[in-house]
Design a protein that fits this description.
Helices cover 38% and strands 34% of the residues.
Length: 141
């Protein structure tokens, strides 16, 4: 009986990992369907982001769909900022902190709002920052 009790935590951990994997699989399957309508898109555990024409749409992925979905056009954006651990960077900077905990792109809207899109990878975030900055510059001129 003692051996059975010793295996119980392992069994619970196994079912917890299986449930977590199933949830993540459901999120990715929903994302695949959602991303088909976008020219450019990204999936992250924090946020999904898609660009179609002059529109940006993002939200938080869940296994039942997106929540907190927001959409803006490039005409609504006044400025774009790249934030790593509460410091702003120019994406052309060569050195970023390797152990960054919070990476995000902030959109400063003309209405004064500042929505933030979270990332886990600095390279993907800087690529999106460059892309969005170039698109914003071309839509202004």
């Amino acid at each position: 009986m003692e051996r059975g009790l010793l295996w119980l935590p392992l069994l619970v951990a196994f079912f917890g990992l299986a449930w977590s994997g199933w949830n993540e699989y459901q999120k990715i399957e929903f994302y695949k369907q959602w991303a088909e309508k976008f020219e450019r898109h990204k999936y992250d555990i924090y946020a999904v982001l898609g660009q179609q024409g002059d529109r940006l749409t993002w939200g938080q992925p869940t296994r039942k769909g997106l929540k907190n979905t927001q959409t803006v056009t490039f005409q609504d954006i006044a400025r774009i900022r790249f934030r790593i651990d509460n410091q702003f960077y120019d994406a052309k900077d060569a050195e970023f902190p390797l152990n960054a905990k919070q990476i995000s792109i902030e959109l400063v809207l003309k209405s004064g709002e500042m929505p933030s899109i979270r990332f886990t990878d600095i390279d993907i975030a800087s690529g999106w920052y460059r892309f969005l900055s170039d698109r914003l510059a071309s839509s202004i001129s």
